């Protein structure tokens, strides 16, 4: 037989995250590797989906999502960011933010287009770019100065093929929350080089220490060139429901919607109804509590990391923390993550998973989106770590 896998398979390898989860399950450990929040979903969201299911919401919906959901998303976006999107023409509900991003890349990027991505990066961003045969070009965020960016690094990354810049705020894995000033700098850069901006704002409601999330599309002159990606996986703790969306000017949204139709047809209809109920009925206090709740988890977990000798890069938002593993035995991030798992039963992700070329070897990433008793157990177990 001379049959082979398609060449694209080499571009999208199984992530370290999944590999660590498998190993952790085999050992019966605590899995802080994957971004799966096991905190409960709001009852109103569950009830909304259950009602829709019992009332026979079983058929395909409009390919960009049910109108009620698009309206609820438009309203929430206006309420939190001040940016207005047309529910009929500028919102595409997809199979999670992951689906929305894939459709947006398909619709707007050509083979060989370069997209600037900050490093450390979220692996799906890079793999999804590669899957559409676009080329990620990396710009560093500096861990020694709170993940600051340098405009010179961005200028150095620009070529005639540069088509877009990708931002993730609050960021996975660094926890960086881009300030308004930083976004203004990036906006000026994008306008000057005539670039699209893809902005993944999945963790928009996870911001700590009194910070606020600033949405790129809200900056002057940016709405027309920005594709905002977000979703309800994290905000409502429903990662398995697969409901996310893209928000952008109608010039781009129609084609993003066509790809969504082609790949997914539509998002699951009763689950669209569930998140609609949540968006309509949960008030500001829900979102404020979310940040407060996760800030407390961050504080608890980062204190435990520091005590265990794994100095944390304390995150400003999202629900991951990169910790320094220099003092642990092992030559690579993967060996050190395995050491942590074997010694304490806590799974993390090797930092190298977030760098393209030999970076991150002194880091591991933990996800702290866990119920308190699980997190407390993990904190205790980490104190057992031995150093070389
Ligand atoms: C930055 C970022 N974007 C998107 C996603 C996935 O979102 P969804 O579940 O809506 O596909 C994640 C999940 O970990 C993430 O960390």
Automatic annotation (TrEMBL):
Question: Pfam families, from UniProt?
Answer: Aminotran_1_2
Q: Which UniProt keywords apply?
A: Aminotransferase, Pyridoxal phosphate, Transferase
Q: Among its keywords, does the record have Transferase?
A: yes
Of the GO CC terms on this record, one is: cytoplasm
Family matches, as SUPFAM superfamilies:
PLP-dependent transferases (SSF53383)
Domain Aminotransferase class I/classII large, first and last residues per copy: 30-382
Enzyme Commission code: 2.6.1.-
Q: What molecular functions are annotated in GO for this chain?
A: kynurenine-oxoglutarate transaminase activity; pyridoxal phosphate binding
Q: What class of enzyme is it?
A: transferase
Name the cofactor(s) required for activity, per the record. pyridoxal 5'-phosphate
Question: Member of which family?
Answer: Belongs to the class-I pyridoxal-phosphate-dependent aminotransferase family.
Q: What is this protein called?
A: Aminotransferase
Which source organism does the UniProt entry give? Chlorobaculum thiosulfatiphilum (Chlorobium limicola f.sp. thiosulfatophilum)
């Amino acid at each position: 037989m001379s049959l082979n896998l398609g060449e694209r398979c080499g571009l999208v390898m199984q992530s370290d995250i999944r590999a660590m989860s498998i190993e952790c399950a085999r050992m019966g450990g605590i899995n802080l590797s994957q971004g799966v929040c096991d905190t409960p979903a709001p009852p109103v969201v569950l009830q909304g989906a259950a009602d829709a299911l019992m009332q026979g919401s079983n058929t395909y919906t409009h390919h960009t999502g049910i109108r009620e959901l698009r309206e609820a998303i438009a309203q929430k976006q206006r309420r939190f960011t001040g940016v207005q999107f047309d529910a009929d023409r500028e919102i595409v509900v997809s199979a999670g933010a992951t689906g929305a991003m894939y459709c947006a890349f398909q619709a707007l990027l050509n083979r060989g287009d370069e997209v600037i991505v900050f490093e450390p990066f979220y692996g799906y961003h890079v793999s999804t770019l590669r899957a559409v045969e676009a080329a990620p070009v990396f710009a560093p965020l500096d861990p020694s100065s709170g993940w600051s960016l340098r405009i010179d690094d961005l200028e150095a990354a620009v070529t005639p093929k540069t088509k877009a810049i990708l931002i993730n705020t609050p960021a996975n894995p660094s926890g960086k929350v881009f300030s308004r000033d930083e976004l203004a700098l990036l906006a000026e850069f994008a306008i000057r080089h005539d670039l699209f901006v893809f902005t993944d704002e999945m963790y928009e409601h996870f911001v700590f220490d009194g910070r606020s999330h600033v949405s790129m599309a809200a900056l002057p002159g940016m709405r027309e060139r920005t594709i905002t990606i977000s979703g309800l996986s994290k905000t409502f703790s429903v990662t398995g429901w697969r409901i996310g969306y893209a928000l952008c000017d109608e010039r781009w949204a129609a084609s993003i919607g066509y790809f969504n139709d082609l790949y997914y047809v539509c998002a699951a209809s009763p689950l669209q109804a569930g998140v609609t109920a949540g968006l309509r009925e949960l008030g500001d206090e829900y979102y404020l509590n979310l940040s407060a709740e996760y800030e407390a988890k961050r504080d608890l977990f980062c204190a435990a990391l520091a005590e265990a000798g794994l100095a944390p890069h304390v995150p400003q938002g999202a629900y991951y923390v990169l910790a320094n593993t220099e003092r642990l035995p092992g030559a690579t991030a993967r060996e050190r993550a395995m050491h942590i798992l074997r010694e304490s039963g806590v799974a993390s992700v090797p930092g190298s998973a977030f760098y393209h070329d030999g970076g991150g070897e002194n880091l591991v990433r933990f996800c702290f989106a866990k119920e308190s008793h699980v997190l407390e157990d993990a904190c205790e177990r980490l104190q057992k770590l031995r150093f070389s």
